[in-house]
Design a protein that fits this description.
Layout (H helix, E strand, L loop, with lengths): L4 H13 L1 H12 L7 H81 L1
Length: about 120
């Protein structure tokens, strides 16, 4: 059942001028309906979305902090790997020197053994 337009306009003017009448009309319209008014549903949904957005913002801040910590740790690990590779190269060079020394000593030992055999 539709109300005449002039009646609707008069009601809106009266309600606009008196918030108590608006509240009374709201209560009257909702009385017995058992339904939440759409504006309350909208307000509740907006509050829930606001809370969800705040939760997401906090999660984003935590994630950014975790990413920064991980990036720092990756940098530390890269530096540790670089130092380890330098030590490995130094050890490899030392092993090569020792191998050359062993080869030199082996040649000398063979020469001494040959000389002993001659005597």
């Amino acid at each position: 059942m539709a109300l005449p337009e002039d009646l609707v306009e008069a009601l809106l003017r009266a309600l606009r001028d008196d918030p108590r009448r608006l509240a009374a009309l709201r209560a009257l319209l909702l009385e017995g309906s058992g339904q939440e008014p759409p504006w309350d549903r909208l307000a509740r949904t907006q509050e829930e979305m606001g809370a969800a957005l705040r939760d997401l913002a906090r999660a984003q801040v935590r994630t950014e902090a975790n990413v920064a910590a991980l990036a720092e740790r990756v940098g530390q690990l890269a530096e540790a790997q670089r130092r380890t590779e330098e030590r490995l190269e130094a050890l490899t060079a030392r092993v090569d020197q020792l191998a050359a020394r062993v080869d030199d000593l082996t040649v000398r030992l063979e020469a001494l053994t040959a000389r002993v055999d001659q005597l």
